[in-house]
Amino acid sequence: MKKHKPRKPFADRSDLEKISAQWTKLSGLHAQDEWSAAVVRAATAAEIAANFAVRKEFASRSEFKSEFIDNLLVWANGLGGKIDRILIPVSKGERHHETIKSLKQASSEIAKKRNRIAHQGEFCSRKTARQIIGQAKGFIETLVRIYEPEYALKDIEL
Prior knowledge:
The protein is mainly alpha-helical. Helices cover 71% and strands 0% of the residues.
């Protein structure tokens, strides 16, 4: 019998490892026609990508402790808040500011669908799931590549 390496606890993983775990989970959910759950995982991966970007921005220009940055992430309240309240303002004047601003609409659409599923019990069709997951993939790769130019999510069959 093949032994499995014990998994690193989720809380101990880096943001990029957490994104990868969410992406793997959503591909399995999508394959099982669990479209609404897959969309929630895609939105979660996008929000973790925003966390990653916020941490990178603050690490490059401050000596704030991680606890303070974690509190900012909670204060920002969701994907839209992290883009609007932290990333757009903190990147002003930087060469990647326009790229981050260009992600605002996608972040809004991803968060809106996720919130309808999570807070109103709305279901999601396969077509809508494909659309939102595609937007999330584009959002994540665009944002993470600002800091990790070679970053790519694995392709999943939608």
